[in-house]
Amino acid sequence: MRNRVGILLLFVSAFTFSAPWLRAQAAKPRAAFDLIQWNGGKFIYGVDYYPEHWNETQWEKDAQMMQAAGINFVRLAEFAWVKMEPVEGQFDFGWLDRALKVLNAHGIKAVLGTPTASPPAWLYAKYPDVAAMDENGVRYRYGSRRNYCLHSANFLAATRRIVTAMAEHYKNHPGVLGWQIDNELGDPICYDASCRAAFQRWCRATYKTLAALNKAWGTIFWGHTYLVWSEIPLPWNTLGKAYNPSLALDHRRFHSAATHDYLKLQVDILRQISPAKAITHNDMGMYDGVDYSVLNQPLDFVAWDNYPMFGEDYANYFGVSLAHDLIRGSKNQQNFMVMEQQGGLPGWNVFWGRQAAPGLYRAWSYQGVAHGADGICYFRWRTSRNGTEQYWQGVLDQDSYPNARYQIVAQTGKELGKLTELLQGSKVVSSVALLVSPDSRWAFRIQPLVNNFDYNRQLGLYYAAFRRLGFNVDVLFPQSDFTSYKIIVAPSLFVVDKPLAEKLAAFVKNGGTLVLSYRSGVKDEHNVVTDQPLPGPLAELAGVAIHDFDPQTNQEQEVVDVEGERYPARVWFDVLDPTTAEVLATYSKGYYAGKAAATLNRFGQGSVVYMGTEFSSPAAYSKLANFLAGQNGMAVGPSLPEGVEMAVREKAGKKILFLLNYTEKTQAVALDQAYQNALTGESEARDVQIPAFDVKVLTTP
Ligand code: GLA
To answer: Relative to the CA of 340, which ligand 1 atom is closest?
Structure first.
């Protein structure tokens, strides 16, 4: 019975949330959530804690050490399904109640993770269909985590059972603030029969008739025309991965929608049984398997997992900032929290990279706050003695010694405590935005264009150029509100439907500046190439036509701007024919030397820049950002040395300025006026000196 209800619910929810025309509705802004108020007026400062991994006699000492470090929050239980439901239908929350009691007694409140990312072995053994199937038709084996099938009726029933039991048990618990749904939703994509049938249902809900689907997908190519819905395949491992890109894009949308529906299934249970408790989920920053701008809408606030040192790239601080901003943008620019903030050196079977200076852990936490985080929770309290993550350091190592990371975490906790009143209610305000198109990201995953194309790299190049000038940058999605921005950069806007083209045209008409780059307007919403001159529906807006392009055949290409400055270029070269646009720069090499590489078009009250290529040096992007700031009358910020970031939060006309030094030497920034140091209360010299790995939090007096 339960299973049948599950299938019905899933079918209904597929209709409600998966149809593309209903997406904008799903993304309606909700009232802003005040995280600090939720945490009883305290800035959320926490650790991810696994009491079940440690001897119960250690809990009291742990809680004391947490409290001494200013910790007032823990996330618990997100992988503890087997401990809470050791036998099917039999629950044991005694251990969690006891852990909560110890923590609560030290002023520490909790978010509980629904444990569905890591189902128990007994569930897989009893119901083999719980495991997802890979594209070769092989089911994943038990032994890791995150490999369940989103359409397994048995898994959905088990999910409902454990989530309901947790909600019932903790609905009135004063020490439980709320819920984290699952953990890092998104992977894997399952290719089994239940998922195929669900995809066919999704197609039917989306296209209504097979004739419409066949037309939209252009299935006459290779004669892949479908006569009954059940013939529709998944984009599984075919010879040469040769499947229809239209089908593949819809399949990505379907998986994203199914992930949303799975989250929503849990949200609905929790809201019904424990309406007073807030709900969040921990996203993965730049991860693109799921459209976060849709996934996050049912949540009260969004959280994400931030490991700045993934790999060895210490210098990529703008990459981390971009991820913070994307997460904020995925939930209508509302403040968020970091649910897993790097608390030590990451690694699984080997350590990845070298140890960070203790000060960097503090700088990374402030970086999150500077970009709108109202909560920082470190992963994890203590490095595990067991399992896969013995080399993934927590704040403490296995010996619990109050090491340098603990000391810096404690220092940061005390400081954030002092800053709470100032931070509460403050927001990131931006005039510049980056438009992220989930459809374009997926279409580029399906057909990556050329080998060294990277959508996120392009986002990063434009982002960094504006950030180096001291501008905050918001991240927008197609359904976001565009109206409050002066400049929107939409790199490689590959897939464009009519509503988006019209929305961008209205933005420019009303005085906005739009930046487009190569391979924009190439595909319609079905991932089918336009039959109009490129950039398709954006051609009139950009004032150019593109009748020729050169994909990375000439690695040595160079672009010269109207002032004679030369910039190396790479990846792709659109040869631009201006129709109404003026030329900003031309190519200097090859048979198209002298042809336009970048243009500027006036349209309505605004303007559109088209960048036909990607530059290998940041200088070209800095010049563009400077130029556009000037055009829009936007004053650039102070000169920032390499390795120093500035970000601003605002509250009632007051600016909170964060200057973050990620380098191992003292750096200086000359500000336009004297500010007050928010931590010391003293006034700060205009020439601000920021010691190595240090942070200045300044306010306008
Ligand atoms: C992710 C997960 C955590 C942990 C860390 C470290 O962010 O959410 O559970 O596994 O990675 O591997």
So the answer is: 7
For 395-429, the three-class secondary structure string (H helix, E strand, C coil) is CECCCCCCCHHHHHHHHHHHHHHHHHHHHCCCECC
Range with the poorest average pLDDT among 25-39, 95-109, 454-468: 25-39
Tell me: the pLDDT tens digits for 489-498? 999 999 999 9
**CA dist 373 to 324, 424, 466, 585, Å?**
8, 10, 21, 40
- Predicted confidence (pLDDT) at residue 7 exceeds the cutoff of 80: no
Q: Which residues pair with 658 in a beta bridge?
A: 647, 697
User: Taking 50 as the threshold, does the pLDDT of residue 23 lie above it?
Assistant: no
Q: Do the Cβ atoms of 382 and 396 come closer than 8 Å?
A: yes
The mean pLDDT value for 572-581 works out to 98
Between the CA of 117 and the centroid of ligand 1 the distance, in Å, is 11
Q: Which of 76, 379, 392 to mutate to test the pocket of ligand 1 (most atoms within 8 A of CB)?
A: 379
Bond preceding residue 128 cis, omega within 30 of 0: no
Return the number of other C-beta atoms located less than 10 Å from residue 293's C-beta: 23
Task: Inform me whether the pLDDT recorded for 51 exceeds 90.
Answer: yes
Strand ranges, E, within 250-332: 278-280, 282-283, 303-306
Ligand 1 test: best mutation among 81, 116, 183, most atoms within 8 Å of CB? 183
Query: What whole-number distance in Å separates Cα of residue 660 and Cα of residue 317?
Result: 10
Counting from 1 in the atom list of ligand 1, the atom nearest the Cα of 389 is 12
Cα-atom radius of gyration of the chain, to the nearest Å?
26
Give residue ranges with CB within 6 A of ligand 1: 183-184, 305, 340, 379, 389, 392
At residue 310, the pLDDT reads 59
Under 8 Å CB-to-CB from 363, ≥6 apart: which residues? 660, 661, 662, 693, 694, 695
Mean pLDDT score, 434-452: 95
Which of 78, 85, 184, 614 is flagged as catalytic? 184
Global pTM? 0.95
Report residue 321: phi and psi, to 5°: -60, -40
d(CA 226, CA 45): 55
Catalytic residue among 85, 340, 558, 684: 340
pLDDT digits (tens, 9 = 90+) for 369-425: 999 999 999 999 999 999 999 999 999 999 999 999 999 999 999 999 999 999 999
Atom of ligand 1 nearest to the CA of 184: 8
Known catalytic residue at 184: yes
Beta-strand relationship, 336-342 and 303-306: parallel
Please say whether the beta carbons of 544 and 579 come within 8 A. Answer: yes
- Residue owning the nearest CA to atom 9 of ligand 1: 183
Report phi then psi at 603, rounded to 5.
-145, 120
What number of other Cβ atoms are within 10 A of residue 605's Cβ?
A: 10
Q: Residues of the chain with pLDDT > 90: what percent?
A: 90
Active site residue 642: no
Q: How far is the CA of 390 from the centre of ligand 1 (A)?
A: 12
Q: Read off the pLDDT of residues 99-151 as tens digits, 9 standing for 90 and up.
A: 999 999 999 999 999 999 999 999 999 999 999 999 999 999 999 999 999 99
Q: Closest ligand 1 atom, CA of 78?
A: 9
Phi, psi of 79 (to 5 degrees): -125, 20
